[in-house]
Structure formats: C-alpha cells, structure tokens
Design brief:
Blueprint: H1 5-13, E1 19-22, H2 29-36, E2 43-51, E3 54-61, E4 65-66, H3 68-75, E5 81-82, H4 85-91, E6 111-114, E7 122-126, E8 132-137, H5 138-145, E9 150-151, E10 154-155
Parallel strand pairs: 2-7, 3-6, 6-9
Antiparallel strand pairs: 1-8, 2-3, 2-5, 4-10, 7-8
C-alpha cells in the first residue's frame, strides 16, 4: 500500500520533511514500536473519538493512555466516546484498519496534540499501513502540528 494521497498531499503542501522507516508487520502501537525498534514515547498514535458533532482525533505517545475527560474538556465537547472501527474505516478509507496516521487535519478531522510529544527529539507515526512509519525531527513535527490545539490529556498506564 502506498502512502495515502490525503497524507502525501497535506505534507507536500506544507513542505514537511520526513523519512520513511519500514518494519515488520504489526497490529498495535506497542508492537509497532518493538518491531521498528523505536521508543514508544516517540511513536505518535491516534485515537478517534466521536459525538453528535462528529469525530475528533487525539494524538498522544504510544506508551500513554488517553484521559477522555481531560481531552473532552480541552476540546469543549462533553459527550465524546471512542469511535467504532467501522466509523474510523469509513473516514480513513485509504488506510488499513488500525493504522490511521495521527494527522487528522489531512482528512478534515479536528486534531488535538498531547504536550508529551513536544519533548521528543524525534517523532514517528503510522503512515496508513502496518509496515511503515514516518520519522520527523522535533522541529518538523512541531511545525506540522503548530496550528493544532495542544494540551495535557494523557497519562502513563497503571501496571
């Protein structure tokens, strides 16, 4: 599968630099980090939520969990719930299930970025399939996400 046209066009229009990294096929963000030999804290994952207004994307590190209440407060949308797989698949038809790039803006999806990603020197993200990642420097990622709302809405998982 090639990089989705939505994503390619969005990155090209903004002059965003990136590298493509390949890895063994994976089924989750944790598995992707292991397979690609990247720290999970540097792998940006997307979580799609929905309410009666539509969908919104949370972008957070793969080693963190979304605090839905904090995210809802930040988004000003108080009936948010996780979107179901069929809804996500219909929005991101050019992506494999479970490999949605954390660049919702490319698909017209409001996107909010967790501040934890701002501390990473390098950020990796799904490219729309389960075998490749985009690799960006901190500055490239920051510039790409500069116009998106940011906030603290993730936490370390309890073990």
């Amino acid at each position: 599968m090639s990089i989705p046209a939505h994503l390619t066009r969005y990155l090209e229009e903004r002059g965003t630099g990136y590298e493509i990294w390949t890895h063994e096929h994976s089924r989750s963000s944790a598995e992707t980090a292991r397979s690609a030999h990247v720290p999970p804290s540097q792998l940006a994952k997307s979580v799609i939520l929905q309410d009666d207004e539509g969908c919104v994307m949370a972008v957070l590190p793969a080693d963190r969990v979304l605090m839905v209440g904090e995210f809802s407060r930040l988004a000003g949308r108080y009936r948010l719930r996780l979107a179901d797989e069929d809804r996500i698949a219909s929005l991101f038809e050019d992506c494999e299930r479970g490999a949605v790039p954390p660049v919702g803006m490319a698909w017209g999806i409001p996107t909010i970025v967790d501040d934890e990603l701002e501390s990473s020197e390098v950020v990796y993200m799904e490219v729309g399939d389960h075998e490749r990642l985009l690799r960006m420097s901190h500055d490239q990622f920051h510039e790409l996400m500069r116009a998106q709302p940011h906030g603290m809405f993730s936490k370390s998982p309890m073990h």
